[in-house]
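Hi L.,

You mentioned the student needs an example of a multi-chain input paired with its predicted structure. This one should do, with 343 residues in total across all chains.
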Amino acid sequence: MNRTLLAVILVAALIAGAWVALDSKPTAAPPPEPRVATVLPAPQALPEFTLVDQTGADRKRDYLEGQWDLLFFGFTHCPDICPTTLATLSSARQELSKSIAGAAPRIVLVSVDPERDTPEKLAEYIAYFGEDNLALTGPEAAIRELTEPLFVYFSKVPLENGDYTVDHSSVVLLVDPEGRFHALFSGPHKAADFVHDLPIIMGNS
Amino acid sequence: MKRLGAAAALLTLGACQPGGEVPLLISDLEVTPPRPGMQMSAGYFSLRNNTAKSIVVTRVDSPQFGAVEMHETTTVDGVSRMRPIESLRVEPGATVTLERGGKHLMLMRPADTLDTVVLNFYADETLLLSVAATTGPR
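Structure written out for the whole complex:
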């Protein structure tokens, strides 16, 4: 074999080796994505509202600024889906507190039953699901100033026994530290989904 | 979260089938404690019909609660609705499960102490089953 042919073979081998090496180089893993949450393409400023919290203090939109919040719309006389959702959020929050650097989102119950959900009742109720949880209530019209622009539905429904229930959206909204509606979680809610999705969303914002 | 549950003990039962199998078997019983300030709890369980005939539970009561109703939560298009249901039908050999976000007992006006909760299940005025739940995890 002459020197020229040998050189050509060596160069070809080098090129082939380099090609294989490049081709087999591991590509960067795609960034993790939420598996349940819907993240808004552009976070939406919350509407202006004036409600009272569980201490009776007036609270406006800026109350939901400065930290991440999970808003759930329910009522204390709801024996099933509301305590189940709040327990789910509480469980997720406890888990997140161990695993994320910053504070886990607060849980904010917005009452859709202002007739029965006084600040005093809400204070007792919401504390059952964790020490830092919050609740908001107020006249129905004031609650609707918050819920309607967010397409959160609630409606009082009389029952045959003379009592009433409240139909309501089961969605959980994530509000970012700038007080913007950032993402939503549709039911059925599982703690593991919040534990998976929230750090991704909070880290990406 | 403290729950009343699982150590459910059968107190009374309808006549056993030949061979000793109970006609209506309850399992995974859980009664949530009333939330602070609230006058209600929820009950969850599974009922299995071991007979060859349908069993229809039309009423549940409890000495520890002022009223017990059977309810169902449904969530359609993102809206949760809770409504009373008239009865609970368990087909022969089938199991009906009452669980969170679905059918459940709504237990109202609890007694001051709830160490043990007794639930009585009826078909009209016939007592089908009495069960006691003691404090403890499911």
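You could point out the following to them. Chain B touches chain A at residues 1, 32, 35-38, 40-42, 69, 71, 73, 75, 78-84, 100-101, 104, 106-107 (CB under 8 Å). The first strand of chain B starts at residue 4 and ends at 13.

Best wishes,
N.
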